[in-house]
Write a structure and sequence with these properties.
By secondary structure, the protein is of the alpha+beta class. It folds into two domains: about 30 residues, no CATH class; about 70 residues, GMP Synthetase, Chain A, domain 3 (2-Layer Sandwich), CATH 3.30.300. About 50% of the residues lie in helices and about 15% in strands. The protein is built from five helices and three strands. The chain has a three-stranded mixed sheet with strand order 1-2-3.
Length: about 120
Amino acid sequence: MAERNKALLERLDRWKYVLLVAAAGLALLLWPTGRTDGPATLTEGTSFSVEEERLASLLSAMEGVGRAQVLLSDSGAAVVCQGADSGTARLDITEAIRRYTGLGADRIVIFKMNESWREQS
């Protein structure tokens, strides 16, 4: 039994550095990063509603967009604005949201604002 244990220890001794590197790599993969993996990562302490308001304000200030409302989620963004019928405004909106949130253009939708909504506000 002692010889068997000794042979096993000798084999492990040959592979100790490989096993050590593998264990370190596994530990690094499992190490918590403290952030979410969602594409729309918010700064700590903020909520989507605050970020939505900030983004809507930014978009409304852009040429051709007009009044805008924004809805964000971890999986996408929706924008309703007055200038949605302009191709240039749509591209500008998509680019601004893409850069701000990290969402892909395929996860951003833009709709024209209803005229009755403008009258109510």
